[in-house]
Amino acid sequence: MKYIFSPWRMKYIQNHDEEGCVFCNVQAQTDSAENLIVFRGRRAFVMLNRYPYTNGHLMVVANAHAPSLEDLDAETRAEMMELLTQCMGILRRNYRPQGFNLGANIGEAAGAGIADHVHLHIVPRWGGDTNFMSTLGQTRVLPEELEETYRRIREGWGSNWFSQNRRLS
Questions:
Q1: Of 57, 117, 119, 121, which is the active-site residue?
Q2: Cβ contacts of 2 within 8 Å, gap of 6 or more
Q3: Has residue 133 got a pLDDT over 60?
Q4: pTM to 2 decimal places
Q5: Catalytic site residue 57?
Q6: Percentage of residues in the chain with pLDDT exceeding 70?
Q7: Which domains does the chain have, with CATH numbers?
Q8: Is 90 exposed, middle or buried (0-12, 13-18, 19+ CB in 10 A)?
Q9: What residues are paired with 143 via a beta bridge?
């Protein structure tokens, strides 16, 4: 049997019972590589997924603590979709993915890890990125450290056409 060590997962396992809502907690902090928030709008914010499926895995999170999209007002839903679109553009320029998985897991039964606070996932994809490690080993191999991904995405907001022409904050 072969082993692949992923020591970064231990922090997730040990801290999985964080007090309060993880999204509300990070929202109260100053933006940094530590809390992974790369952009704030008026009604939602963008952050990296701390335990990503691939490099560049982003989340658009409503400021309001609500479990589902239908619990949000129309302006918040619209801003979340606009931010999702901006994320795709930044990821296209910085990572050159060949496709995207976009989605929301609404409710625990649908796979939501944080079911009480609605958020959208943007996962860049490349041809052949599902390999034996993911399929057989149930292990993801990420070629870039999270801090570098944060830097690249954060810098992307400054050069983003949407940010310059349709500023949300």
A1: 119
A2: none
A3: no
A4: 0.75
A5: no
A6: 73
A7: 8-165 (3.30.428.10)
A8: buried
A9: none
